[in-house]
Amino acid sequence: MRVPSFPGRVWCLAGWLLLAVAGGAIADGASPALTLTQGTESRELTLEQIEAPGLHTVEMRHPEGPEGTFSGVWLDDFLAAQGLEEARRVRFLALDGYTTFLTPAQRREKRYLLVTRLDGEPVGEAALGPLMLVVPEDAAAAREGSVPMTRWIWAIQEISAL
């Protein structure tokens, strides 16, 4: 079980691809939001660059509280735009140190949304931001407890492609 280090945080799991979020808010699209790491090479990405493949929106309530219009990019579209669609594993690391991984087979099972905005604004820390990975089709079932949230992760700090 994940020990929360932020109010309202609980355990979660998601994937392998190391994106490092530059600590605080990502209030504008031009400030660094993530550091994408592949092997020994890293680069910072802005919110604008993350969202370049195109935003998709879903109305939902996150099992950990936030509710509204979640906007972001489909994970596979993001990985393809970064030239990482063939990554063997993608690793996600949260601000509180929680980490999880996704393999290509797991990415084929469900559609993952890399959430960058809630109700049109960058996701704040109080709403589990600055970035989160969700499975929109499983939101209701995850709230009911009938499907695990082991591949959901929020407060994403880093993503690494392995």
Describe this entry's structure for a reader.
- By secondary structure, the chain is an alpha+beta fold.
- About 15% of the residues lie in helices and about 35% in strands.
- The protein is built from four helices and twelve strands; from the N terminus they run E-E-E-H-E-E-H-E-E-H-E-E-E-H-E-E.
- Strands 4, 5, 8, 9, 10 and 11 form a six-stranded antiparallel beta sheet that branches. Strands 1, 2, 3, 6 and 12 form a five-stranded mixed beta sheet that branches.
- A hairpin with a 2-residue loop joins strand 2 (about 30-40) and strand 3 (about 40-45).
- The longest helix is centred in the middle third of the chain and has 7 residues, at about 75-80.
- The chain is globular, with a radius of gyration of 14 Å.
- The protein starts with 17 loop residues before the first strand and ends with a strand.
- Mean pLDDT is about 85; it is low at about 1-25.
The SSE string, one letter per element, is: EEEHEEHEEHEEEHEE
Strand content: 35-45%
Sheet with the most strands? 6 strands, antiparallel
The computed structural class is alpha+beta
**Could you tell me the number of beta strands?**
12
Q: Give the averaged pLDDT, no decimals.
A: 83
Instruction: Please report the distance between the alpha carbons of the first and last residues.
Output: 25 Å
Low-confidence stretches at least 5 residues in length (pLDDT < 50)?
1-26
Number of helices: 4
Relative helix content: 10-25%
Question: Which shape, going by the Cα principal axes?
Answer: globular
What's the gyration radius in Å?
A: 14 Å
